[in-house]
Amino acid sequence: MERIPILKIGNLLLVSIQVDLQDRTVITLEEDLAEKIVATGARGVVIDITALDIVDSFTGRMLATIASISRVLDAETVVVGMRPAVAITLVELGLSLEGIKTALDVERGMRLLSARA
Amino acid sequence: MERIPILKIGNLLLVSIQVDLQDRTVITLEEDLAEKIVATGARGVVIDITALDIVDSFTGRMLATIASISRVLDAETVVVGMRPAVAITLVELGLSLEGIKTALDVERGMRLLSARA
Hints:
The structure is a homodimer.
Chain A: E1 6-9, E2 12-16, H1 23-40, E3 44-48, H2 57-72, E4 76-80, H3 84-92, E5 101-103, H4 106-116
Parallel strand pairs in A: 2-3, 3-4, 4-5
Antiparallel strand pairs in A: 1-2
Helix pairs in contact in A: 1-2
């Protein structure tokens, strides 16, 4: 089974999603991330979706769930690397990712989180 | 076609390999990376292979090629996240990744590169 790696950089965690997301992969990611936040005491999570050509409602829900899990564990989530076409599709789907912070790229996302920490 | 994202963090580039590597993917990655090193003036490249269960001679060669390309563009490469089993297989295959620096995780890899910059 595919497992999405979670990289620790300073007091942030970086998740770069590059594979097609299946139910099982998403559940594993959520569990792994929750554990890693607790184990490392990370204050922020950067989710990079540069590699995703398509973001459907399933992915949108996953991003919202991850943000909520992080929030209750006292970490903030920023989604970075969204393509223009993905942004348009999301809004057309009625998914405006409310409550989820976004940044153009990993660097800006990390800066945003560091500024708040 | 799959394209492996290259993330810029400070003056380093981070490549997290999570997909099965095909010839085309590797060539694209090498081209993208060379362009990005020049465009950003990055001094180091961190290649994360946490997600790889198997590293064969093809992958070994790719890591060596990427390290060489980076070197001629004045950037240093560190391979991080190698699993114990992968290390054993590599050595059994006679691939000891000579000339390629390694570190246990992304954080140590970034620290190693920053220390040299």
